[in-house]
Design brief:
This protein is of the alpha+beta class. It has helices spanning 31-36, 83-89, 109-119, 134-140, 214-218, 234-248, 269-283, 327-333, 363-381; strands at residues 2-9, 21-28, 46-49, 55-56, 61-68, 73-77, 98-104, 143-144, 147-148, 153-160, 165-170, 192-202, 256-260, 266-268, 292-294, 322-324, 340-341, 344-346, 353-356, 390-391. The chain binds flavin-adenine dinucleotide.
Length: 392
């Protein structure tokens, strides 16, 4: 079934809670419905949304907003992968225990994580409680606590709105990078609608605890003897991650946001050293600037468990290491942490997050705050911040 509504209120369909309308909104339940949509005839532009948790609507949307309600989770085959599949999913490392699970694009990603944990399937527990839906997870290459969704994606199934046919992409063909994929390439953005994703999960314990303080949190005495690593279950890790995330990040139902608003910038070593010298002069010689050195042989499209983004090496420093400096640190150093500007504010527990503080913020207030943050980081550090959040 396709449900069509005109001048649809999108307030509850974007986690920032922007009070905007879509001229036309269409929600479909199945791939058969998707085929029935006459794409040529839709009011333009066309935007496919998931949970609206990485979007900032800057105004009413003049075209058509599409949303998938394709909701299923299905174990395809729990037998060992056969050799042809091994090649395309890199699962030599995943050994012979890959369990293929097909999940509809409209499934809330965290519902899938909860389901997998209950089934005792490993792979997505570290991605628990990330807002949004399964279709967008494969577009965004969501990541948290040392895991990116590309690590467990086997294939992404799509509808090609240009050729009007179904296609699928192997994980290599998706060209995943930090919160990036081929689906975000401006040349083809919007052409492919994700209908479902096949994940390769595992029954064999595969805890990933090396990131942040996950290991200490999981193995803390309050989790009892069961926390000893060999007794860990995906449910235990999921529980701990949800607890940590709730302490750090605003709950979208309570305070609107789109998570991390800015990307972490990557700068030259020389630039970093200037920033470090200024910080030591300001805070004392023992002051440590948080940073991560990206070795000189690292390709510019890099894996991202430490959340560095695509970056360019300026001419003349092709052979030098680069340095990622957390945007949150820079924003805090500029005095923005917890500051309000009209209905918008910088979240007091995590300055990388801009929030709809009053619940009534206008898009202009969010954008105004964004611009002022960008300007002050540029003035203090000479660094250009770029938004992670997609402005619509
Ligand atoms: C509080 C909070 C915490 C967050 N924490 C994290 C985190 O830890 N890690 C992380 O990676 N992200 C995080 N995010 C960002 C966000 O959750 C992810 O980017 C998520 O994948 C967005 O999913 P969505 O369904 O809401 O997509 P939307 O925001 O609706 O859309 C995102 C993009 O995907 C496209 N899209 C959506 N569905 C489809 C489809 N079926 N086919 C083709 N294209 C589609 C849209 O056009 C858009 O370009 C956080 C956000 C919030 C609000």
């Amino acid at each position: 079934m396709i449900k069509t509504e005109y001048y649809k209120d999108l307030t509850k369909m974007n986690t920032f809670g922007m009070k905007v309308k879509a001229r036309c909104f269409m929600e479909y339940d199945s791939v058969a419905d998707l085929v029935d949509i006459e794409f040529e005839e839709l009011a333009r532009p066309v935007l496919h949304i998931g949970g609206g948790s990485n979007l900032l609507f800057t105004d009413d949307f003049k075209g058509t907003v599409l949303h998938s309600k394709i909701n299923f989770i299905e174990i395809l085959d729990d037998s060992p992968c056969h050799s042809e599949e091994r090649v395309s999913c890199h699962c030599e490392e995943r050994s012979d225990v890959a369990i293929y699970v097909s999940v509809g694009a409209g499934v809330v990603f965290d519902d899938f994580c909860a389901w997998a944990a209950k089934e005792g399937l490993w792979g997505v527990e570290n991605l628990s409680y990330i807002p949004g839906e399964v279709g967008a997870s494969a577009v965004q290459n969501i990541g948290a606590y040392g895991v990116e969704v590309k690590d467990v994606i086997h294939k992404v199934y799509c509808y090609d709105t240009v050729e009007e046919e179904f296609v699928n992409f192997s994980v290599e063909e998706c060209e995943y990078g930090y919160r990036d994929s081929i689906f975000k390439d401006p040349e083809i953005k919007g052409r492919y609608i994700v209908t479902h994703v096949v994940f390769a999960l595992s029954r064999e314990p595969r805890p990933r605890l090396e990131y942040g303080h996950l290991k200490e949190a999981v193995t803390s005495p309050e989790n009892g003897d069961a926390s000893i690593e060999r007794y860990l279950t995906p449910e235990m890790i999921r529980r701990v991650i949800i607890k940590i995330r709730k302490e750090k990040l605003p709950e979208p139902s309570v305070m609107g946001s789109a998570g991390s608003f800015f990307k972490n910038p990557v700068i030259t070593m020389e630039h970093y050293q200037r920033i470090e010298a200024a910080a030591k002069a300001e805070h004392g010689p023992d002051y440590k600037v948080p940073h991560y050195i990206i070795p000189s042989d690292t390709p510019t499209v890099v894996p991202s468990d430490t959340s560095y983004c695509h970056f360019e090496r300026p001419e003349g420093v092709e052979k030098s290491p680069m340095v990622k400096v957390p945007a949150a640190w820079m924003i805090e150093q500029c005095g923005w942490k917890g500051r309000r500007s009209g209905g918008a504010a910088v979240y007091d527990k995590q300055p990388l997050v801009i929030v709809n503080y009053t619940g009534e913020a206008y898009p202009e207030e969010i954008i105004g705050l964004e611009r002022r943050i960008i300007a002050s980081v540029k003035a203090k550090f000479g660094v250009d911040l770029h938004p992670e959040v997609e402005h619509i």
